Amino acid sequence: MIRCLIVSFFVVLSVPVTAGPFPEPVTDSSYSPIDPAEAALGQLLFYDPILSGNRNISCATCHHPKFATSDGLSLGMGEGGIGLGMARRADPQNMPEDRIPRNSPALFNLGASEFTVLFHDGRIEVDPDRSSGFRTPLDDDMLSGFTSLLSAQTMFPVLSADEMAGHYGENDVAAAVRKGLITGEGGAWDILSRRVAEIPEYDTRFIQVYEHISEGSQITFTDISNAIAAFVAYEWRSDEAPYDAFLRDPDLTLSEDAQLGLELFYGAAGCANCHAGPFQTDHRFYATGTPQLGPGKAAPFENHTKDVGRMRVTGKEVDAYAFRTPSLRNVTRTGPWGHAGAHVDLGEFLRDHADPTASIERFSEGGGARDAVKLPEFMADDWHEMNDAEARASILSAATIRSRMDLDSSEITALLAFLGTLEDPVALSGRLGVPKQVPSGLPVDGVER
Asked: What is the CATH number of domain 35-70+105-237?
């Protein structure tokens, strides 16, 4: 079946592919080796709600294979939500304080060595000058022992009140976070580590996987995060798409629409200027005039609903409203699209990406583009920024990257056909899958009880 899906993207054509140059094919050297036992342990932890403050949310709640490792929503609902995907709703017994402010990013290829900066705003990145090896919001308080940037990244959602920690007074993890106790004895990470260590199956598995852990020694949070990272890197490595086959065999020719899309992507449309390399990202940050909805990003002492993106990390005006170039692997399946998930149709996103002024107007009050947005019902002012003419103007004035401005419907169709060749059926299916149960005994998202 998988072979049939891949072959269907290719036909024999007399017209050669003239665009390029193309990236080198992905090889095993692009990734670190994975210990299968470590990945299997990480699989259980990824799906286990034990790592959330109220024991009701797992990593998979917002990164589920049913939704191509995202959550199928424009903006997610973490703590205070019930259900999965569009079925997720606010819990009347534990109402959320707000939506998660940015769209849940996909997890494909995050174990590849070239991914040295993560999150929409790049707030964590590899930094050999730091004792931990990484620059993160914890600065010099960041623990050492994370084996990769992916490992370090997985452990920040557990500290977020709206994502996994819960809110002050609800549980011991949330209370520790509120007090600023993250690392060290009694910190949020220590509390969660002890929870895991108290479960006999986890204790046994950690001893079997890690040589430095013996009976009676303490499992650390870096051990937990390293296992989860190993799972994510193994489960969602994505390099078996039709496009990969094309790169590895120059004699293969894409279908006519896909070939036209490839030539646009690597040629006249200029997509590859930013979506470069084997994973279609240059890992840099650009302001593209993308619409914003939801609560925005603000510090506790701030009172606004805007999201200035990379500028929150660097403090530089030039980075206002800039967000990281996303990888396009499996992009046809990872919607809604945009850092705030404003677009539920990829073709519409491409049109708007080519013309951000028209895009912003379509999402302004009365613009007609809001009805399709995938937001669970919740009492919130989701359109504050798009209702504000000054805010809309600020987003547009910062936009510096624009693709060709006259993409017609046939070109959009061709680009979508090319992006379809980036679908990897192996990665989309997953290698280990969703466990039917986890050692804590807590419910697993996506598994009928």
From this structure: 1.10.760.10
